[in-house]
Design brief:
Blueprint lengths: L18 H28 L3 H29 L1 H21 L3 H29 L2 H32 L3 H4 L2 H14 L32 H4 L3 H23 L4 H20 L7 H4 L2 H14 L5 H12 L4 H7 L1 H17 L5 H19 L9 H26 L7 H27 L5 H27 L5
Length: about 475
Amino acid sequence: MSEITATPSRATSPYRALLAPGIAQALIALDYAIVYVALPTLAQRLNLSTSEMQWVVSLYGLTFAALLLSGGALCDRLGARRMFIAGMVLFLFASLLGGLAQNGALLLTARGGQGIAAALLQPAVLALMAQRFSGDSHRRALAIWSAIGASGLVAGVILGGALTALSWRAIFFINLPPGLLALWLIRRHFLPAGMQVGLAGLKTGPGVNSSGHSAEPKRRPIFRLLHGGGALIGCAAAGALVWALTRFAENGSADFLANRLAAAMLLLFILHERYAPRPLLSRALRSLPGLQTGWLSSACYMASVGSQFFAMTLLWQQSQHLDAVTTGLLFTPLALLIVLGNAIYSRLSARFSGTQLLMAGFAAAGLGLWLLSINLTDSLSLPLIGGIALSGLGHGLIYPAMFAVGLCAVPEQQQGRASALIVTSQYVAGAITLAVIAVLLGTQPDVAAWQAVFRGLSGAALIGMLVALCAARSPEKS
């Protein structure tokens, strides 16, 4: 029986359709950050060990990164709208389980469930926007969506402190109202594949035949939908890599078993993608210059301004002994500047190429992070204020630009896997960066250690600028 949904009205602004993807992106970012400031309270109330505390944070990112490529493959085969609904339902169930958890095992199960749900949601969100918007409208949609997503990252840090003061369970229950709203909005603004209504500046959905009726997808076994061995090996490789990095961050030294397992699985995945007749990422997709720039930029983003929140949270709470609520409030100016950077991208995207804006964003971020390293003790110093301003604006430029460049030449039916590749590189780079930060800080970080952290983040932004420069000078400009 076919599904019946509301048809978007022509009088309705098409950008209202961004509310559902924006809410989903905000929840994904919020849940990655919200537990940072609530972790001490969680550990006290549930009697978590030091190792369990680490896994509360890392398990979400581990499952997210490990299953993201499979989420992209499922999105391309089953449809972005269907995967969005399935992912959001799972995310809300896991959030409810986390809020009701009475011990560490249930809490870790809930965090893993949230990561799996996020892996289904992320590629579906980007694929839905690629299906609905095109050309200039797609660039504007990316800017609006990334601004909403950026607010979720900062809201996670701010709400983590405020809600923990009431009850730590509220950091999970807070997901329920916006998640339910997103489910209602997705049914209202996105019709099933083949039924999308054409509006000015928008696309119609895939699967429409010449008579306007949707073509029924062929039924395939679930193993084929996951691209068989490629997806399973990819999941195992990403999971083993993130596990090895997490073990390194926990112990301060390499874990023999984790490192060997990660190396073996990565080699197996590379061999599969090189020689298998049906690789997870098609050879044509991997050869697109824009996508190569996109995933490399994504890795540099997370190794620079993407990890700035984590570094500054540790600086303010552990070294300067600020409480969680004050730490959250200090992030407000940075949040507003990221949103301003998104707005600047939206204004300039019609005049400048994506690679040019990406290069400008990385240049501003690199300079800002370097300025932050000059004076870390005075919160009102000119270098710190200038550093926050430049890094925030750079952050706001980089995030939508890297997706615009990475996905501009990708066929619509492969948008899910391409977006998954970009986000997977982001979270794997994030795991590497957090491990490096932990090593640089040691057990008793001094001013020199903190300077090394922020200069390292600045160096990653410089590498991102060079990636964008090389792409801008290539014959095929984005």
